[in-house]
Write a structure and sequence with these properties.
The longest helix is centred in the first third of the chain and has 19 residues. The radius of gyration is 19 Å and the shape is globular. The strands form three sheets. Strands 1-2-3-7-6 form a five-stranded mixed β-sheet. A two-stranded antiparallel sheet has the order 4-5. Strands 8-9 form a two-stranded antiparallel sheet. By secondary structure, it is of the alpha+beta class. It has a single domain, classed as Phage tail protein-like (STM4215-like, 2-Layer Sandwich), CATH 3.30.2000.10. A hairpin with an 8-residue loop joins strand 2 and strand 3. It is built from three helices and nine strands; from the N terminus they run αβββαβββαβββ. It starts with a helix and ends with a strand.
């Protein structure tokens, strides 16, 4: 049986492949905090901004995904501001004109509500690149709905309640649930 997370990974992989093919020379990867500062521009960082669970349809988990595609160019790109907008527009057109269909997990619906805005997240984390973010919604029909506890390693979790920015000692942490 396919798990919903497997289907989500397949959609991300298909999106990476589609954008890499459509936008020759652009590096496409999933957003990871550790690769955000070392990406080679031009690049697209795929981000899942939120997931909204819908009513399951037969044996499929239905989820509405809010995607963020961070379109990154180096600061020394000629006509940078116009180039960023052209890059974002090219991504928007690709999303509008081509949807991803995965026979293993089900149909993904076409991208909806495609918008592009200046990307303040990349501006604040990178010193030599600028970006525009293309955001869109998409409804996915993923794998079977169930939790696989065997895939999760039990760990002790400690939590401390402190005000933002204030230092706290390790002794302030409480064990939430012992393993």
């Amino acid at each position: 049986m396919t798990q919903p997370t497997d289907g989500l990974v397949q959609v991300i992989d298909a999106m990476k492949s589609q954008l890499t093919t459509a936008l020759n020379g652009v590096n496409v990867s999933f957003w990871e905090s550790e690769n955000a500062s070392s990406v080679t521009a031009p690049a697209i960082l795929i981000d899942i901004e939120n997931l909204l669970l819908q009513t399951d349809l037969h044996d499929k988990v239905v989820v509405q995904v809010q995607w963020g595609l961070h379109c990154v160019l180096a600061e020394d790109t000629p006509d940078l501001q116009l180039s960023l907008r052209r890059f974002a527009l090219s991504v928007m057109q690709e999303l509008r004109d081509n949807s991803v269909w995965l026979p293993e997990t089900g149909v993904t619906q076409a991208a909806e509500h495609i918008v592009s805005v200046p990307d303040m997240q990349i501006l604040s984390t990178s010193g030599n690149a600028l970006a525009w973010k293309v955001g869109f919604q998409q409804t996915l029909h993923l794998g079977t709905s169930y939790w696989d506890a065997t895939a999760i390693t039990p760990q002790n979790i400690y939590i401390a309640r402190v005000k933002k920015g204030e230092p706290h000692a390790k002794s302030d942490h409480e064990l939430v649930h012992p393993v």
